[in-house]
């Protein structure tokens, strides 16, 4: 099953990724000023994927990727793929698992890992 992960960029904008069953990022969303915008896009993808368009692109270096859009507005860009078959597999994973994908929100986490001073080490 795939997973949507919401996080915050260094500039304060919110974004989300869709990760495959194996944990590899398939696409990354555009930046959003509000977390609620990310949540609305995720809900749209989960419940109405048929309303979105996948535009396949090949860059100058020969790599393949796709843009996920709705109504002409690009909402996400995929990772780069070496072959068109791998690109198709990435899209197929979204079509198959996005409706049941879990949503994880790491946008409010100040520090996922505590600073070194905060860790108490018990003596043996």
TrEMBL record:
UniProt xrefs under InterPro entries: YegP-like_sf (IPR036913)
Protein's name according to its UniProt entry: DUF1508 domain-containing protein
Native species: Flavobacterium agri
């Amino acid at each position: 099953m795939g997973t949507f992960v919401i996080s915050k960029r260094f500039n304060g904008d919110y974004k989300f990724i869709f990760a495959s069953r194996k944990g590899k990022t398939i696409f990354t969303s555009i930046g959003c000023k509000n977390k609620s915008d990310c949540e609305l896009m995720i809900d749209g993808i989960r419940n109405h994927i048929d309303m979105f368009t996948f535009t396949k692109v090949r860059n100058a270096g020969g790599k393949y990727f796709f843009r996920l859009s709705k109504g002409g507005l690009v909402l996400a860009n995929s990772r780069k793929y070496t072959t068109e078959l791998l690109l198709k597999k990435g899209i197929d994973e979204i079509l198959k698992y996005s409706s049941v994908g879990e949503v994880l929100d790491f946008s409010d986490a100040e520090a996922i890992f505590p600073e070194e001073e905060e860790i108490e080490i018990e003596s043996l």
